[in-house]
Amino acid sequence: MNLQGFLNDCAAIEAVAERIYLRLASSPSIEPWLRSVFQQLAEDESGHSRQLNSAALAFEQTEYGLKRIAHHRVVELLDEAEALLQRVKEDAVGAKEALACSIELENKFRKIHLDQATFFDDEQVMKTFNSLARSDAEHLATLQDAIAKFKRGEKKT
Ligand SMILES: [Fe+2]
Q1: Statement: the pTM of the whole predicted model exceeds 0.90
Q2: The CATH number of the domain where 45 resides is what?
């Protein structure tokens, strides 16, 4: 497998995350303040996806050692994100569960970005993965705040 395929699969995960957040941002069962949180997250993911796709362009011929790059983990994570997207599309996920699932996914994104960042010979790709991991961490903080706010709201009613 070449590095381009790997980076494109990483970009695909970001694109699925974008669709999950967009769908949540337009869900009538979710309160407006929380919908705008998801809207902002969706915009970030769209940027990440573009960033990875354009990084991928440079690596058509570049092979990577299978042991070093955990491509199977990216594929598994993509499946997992797609399964959540499917459930979100069916309106099967309430606000609280959506937040919990998003936190779980962002945690996994962050871990994979951090782990993989150390394996790239290309400095630019390494920097991209480190910056993605920072953004995942910001998303986690945003989602943790949102879930705390959501729980406070639940207590009042
Ligand atoms: Fe992202």
Answers
A1: yes
A2: 1.20.1260.10
